[in-house]
Amino acid sequence: MAMSIVQSLQQAVSQAIENLYGEPFAADKVQIAPTSPEFTGDYTAVVFPYVKLAKKAPDVVGAEIGDFLQKNVPDVQAFNVIKGFLNIELSTAYWQNFLQNALADPGFGRQPRNGRKVMVEYSSPNTNKPLHLGHVRNCLLGWSCSQILDAAGYDVVKVQIVNDRGVAICKSMLSWLKYGEGKTPESTGIKGDHFVGDFYVLFEHKTRAEYEAWQQTDAARALFADKHKPEQSEKDFFKDYKNKWFNEYSSLGAEVRDMLLRWEAGHPDTVALWKQMNNWVYQGFEATYAKLGVAFDKLYYESDTYLLGKDIVEEGLSKGVFYRKDDGSVWVDLTDVGYDHKVVLRADGTSVYITQDLGTARMRYHDFGCESVVYVVADEQNYVFAVLFEVLRRLEEPYAQGLHHLSYGLVELPTGRMKTREGTVVDADDLVEEVIRIAREQAAERGGVEGDDREENLRKVGLGALKFFMIKVNPKRRMIFNPEESVDLQGQTGPYIQYSWVRINGLMQRVKRENVDLSPAVSYTDFQPQEKDLLKALHEFPGVVLTAAREYDPSHIANYCYGLAKSYHRFWHDLSVFNADAPEARAFRLELSRAVGKVLEAGMRLLGIEMPERM
RNA sequence: GGCUCCGUAGCUUAAUGGAUAGAGCAUCUGACUACGGAUCAGAAGGUUAGAGGUUCGAGUCCUCUCGGAGUCACCA
Description:
Distance between the termini: 40 Å
Strand content: 5-15%
Structural class: alpha/beta
Radius of gyration: 30 Å
């Protein structure tokens, strides 16, 4: 592959230092950055690191290196030095050439395949209730991260692990058996995941009613009198006691545990019911994923993986990574890296969560051979993943050096964390409908364009607003989501970017209609600042994709697209395209617009955001 | 309490150790008989929580203090 201009400049600067001052300086240590907007130039070399070995003042060093570059690098046209910053101006020919190449390359911004496989795990829902706002952020991050890694040259495998077993789904199952009267999603017209979720909520209500009734019994009163702490109110006491009550006194609790035991024993009716209810949920999930525009290559189910990992525990024992206590439980000592002792197998020989995670990791490596894995999971599990990764490294698993936890901040509401019990959960399906509704409302207010594709465009605008809102901030930042006002359509938003693309689309339609000759573009040389800004921004695109991939951070792409769209809006406002005063200028601006449109579309696609034809 | 993360304008936020900390929202003032005004320009808004330190250079790295969050089950 040809060397990029930045690499050429690094090499040339390195060469200059060696020639001028007789000291070697590694080319990849040479700092080259895009020139700040307030100065003249395209790229800037920082010369402070060389003043010591040159034994000269910074501005002298800058001038000497600049002189060398101008003489030895054909693309360098001019330079200026300000306070130790060497600003380099590239030639018009370089920029013309760059634009033509970018336009000719259908995959501009994408790297060649690097032959490496990476797995991205995201979403990973429970099957007892529908997806909510938190899953939406997770899915958007997981999807865009997958797209970005793909663009960076990796082969990406997208997976989720579905928590399809355990107490939670048993609650929905029992609830349906007791109160369902044989209803189905089909018979009620309720989407499958919501249908099952409703029975989960109903179960919680019934449990609460049972608990409140129980609190009036003599046994409960006696217990409170005996066990409560001084200062503790009856209300607080019973709040804390709920779990214990559910496990020891509740008849619903007993029935759920019984159902879980029957499931684990493979009781046919129970398993059949479990399959039925989960299938309802999966149909609902699929619809939601389709609406969000995300997909998976393979699904893993906890019912298949929850027993895995015991062989790894044995291995770890023989390797000395783990140790066994007298009661038979198995542990790992991580105190030397500042963590704790962690149990990896219970005394009764059954798995804990990490046992399963170890087994799943190995199983997936066996399935796909990915040398690295990205887990998209909220930051409340930071410690869990730090421990998991440390254990896998100690076990010397072949993929252990490539593990990454894409940790993101929880999405909260203005009232605090979402709580199922308090009914404050923002449902994913509702949210999608809501943002499309807002887009429709806004379009009507602006006297939006009608047409056959109207609904499709409104969907793209609404989702574009939502997705951009959630992805433009650094993933690790916590986010307060106010459904009332979070999805703006003006300013630093998805629709702002979509609008710049729509403008370009309008130009391209006219080019086609009028069969405009674009060939004079190459003889245009008098770049205006607004045009130069766009050229420089386009030039950055491939590097931004690589940065986003390296840091597993889609927000870089979002911020880049915003910056490019902003430059384009200014260009549009300040300069005429079709009415340019010379044919070369008109053709060049059209070509430049075409390139911007192309990059905006590609960049936003990496975020899972589509461009509407009109808006 | 131990460990981890965070603190940038009224609010939401950006900034591979580099130049005068950059945007958006909200507020105020302007801009189309011109390719679409979901746009553009301008004003105002900052001791980057605080104090030390390293460096030619610190929002960024180190130490301490203050404030906030997460997490510390043989639960899933």
